[in-house]
Amino acid sequence: MYDGDIASVLISERQIKDKVSELAKQVDDDHPQSGDLLLVGVLKGAVMFMTDFARALPHPAQLEFMAVSSYGSSTSSSGVVRILKDLDRDIAGKNVVVVEDIIDSGLTLSWLLKNLASRNPASLEVCTLLRKPDAVQVDVPVRYVGFDIPNEFVVGYGLDYAERYRDLPYIGTLDPKVYTSGA
Ligand code: XMP
Ligand code: MG
Predict the structure, then answer these.
(1) ipTM score of the complex?
(2) Domain 12-153, architecture per CATH
(3) Could you tell which of 102, 109, 136, 170 is best to mutate to test the pocket of ligand 1, judged by most ligand atoms within 8 Å of the CB?
(4) Which pTM was predicted?
């Protein structure tokens, strides 16, 4: 699959699986009244993580999705966000966990958290599979982080380049030829 496009495997399928279980256990342990969690997955990148994470949780959780688009170039976000698909229901009084694929500048998430907080959930936390170095400087509370990764563009396990590579079971870095050939 995608022969030659992937320069290196940064996080293997096995490592992802183990981390998803570990995160699910942590989140479950932190919620004594478990069974009432509402997961909010951010489309499309978080879809693989969301489905694996939900199934790894020892107690039932409900699933909601949001799609947002950040104005700006394709490689950096501006912090100005537009909702493409909103939640289907009210989250007031719910224990919400936002499930994200990756936090880079943190601007998208920062906007999203303000937006969700205004809907008065009982609690609001973030669980992200990946975090890049710049995110650490932004004042966004992220309780659960799978992997801190280097400042490189990564694909796979939901993450795309021009809508490709989301279906890879691992996280990898792209061969620069992919950016330059326009393929
Ligand atoms: P910010 O900068 O607001 O943006 O935290 C996070 C969003 O940017 C995208 N993003 C990536 N997508 N590989 C990707 O496929 C990457 O390495 C990458 N870095 C940032 C992603 O959509 C994320 O939600
Ligand atoms: Mg993307």
Answers:
(1) 0.91
(2) 3-Layer(aba) Sandwich (3.40)
(3) 102
(4) 0.92
